[in-house]
Every structure is written in structure tokens, then in C-alpha cells.
């Protein structure tokens, strides 16, 4: 049973920073590409960032590119999302996601359908 638990969300001011963490248990973390998604009230879930199983390849959505950084520590079964220069439009519930199958050390996807396991989400609220 693979479980993902996010933490680190909260309230931040515009221009501030937050670091989200996702602890993964079960499965083979080092062979799973990981992703972060978010869902704002009244909107669909959207891709934020993804990282390949070996950490060598990363991808970001245009709204967060240059402000957010995804990373992972395979020794600790952790994935992180460092968020800087936060904007009110970053307010959302942030979800961590993991792929079940291994598609190669450099593979990742921005499609939510490509992920098999999801965390419960952590709220990020950015005030102006």
C-alpha cells in the first residue's frame, strides 16, 4: 500500500515562500516519477511540477516556472516543492502524486492521469 502525506502548507504573504514536503511510504519510491498538482476553489486540478525517478529531469507549468522548484531525496522517500515569490493566485490545495510503474529514470509526465497514487492535499493560502 503506497501512501503519500503532504505537509508544509499554510498562510503566506504575497512575495513570501513556503516549502511543501511529501513523505512516501510503500512501493519503490526511487523508481517512481513524482508530481505536484493544485486545485483552487471552483477550478480543475492543474499540473504544477514533476520530477523523474532519478531527479535528473524536471518540468514546470508556465505559471510557476522560475518561482517553484521541485526536488526529491530518494534516501528519505521525500519529494519537495519550494515555492518562492508567492502570488495570491497560487492559493490552492496542493497534492503530491506518484507513478506506480517505472518508465525510465528520466521520465515524468504533467498529466494527472499518469499518476496512480495521491496524497490528501495541503492548503496553501497567499494573502495580498
Describe the structure in your own words.
The chain is mainly beta and 128 residues long. The protein is built from no helices and eleven strands. The chain has strands spanning 3-7, 10-13, 18-25, 34-39, 46-51, 58-60, 68-73, 78-83, 92-98, 117-118, 122-127. The strands form two sheets. Strands 2, 4, 5, 6, 9, 10 and 11 form a seven-stranded mixed sheet that branches. Strands 1-3-8-7 form a four-stranded antiparallel sheet, with no helix packed on it. A hairpin with a 6-residue loop joins strand 4 and strand 5. The model has no long low-confidence stretch (mean pLDDT 96).
Which terms summarize this structure?
128 residues, mainly beta, 11 strands, globular
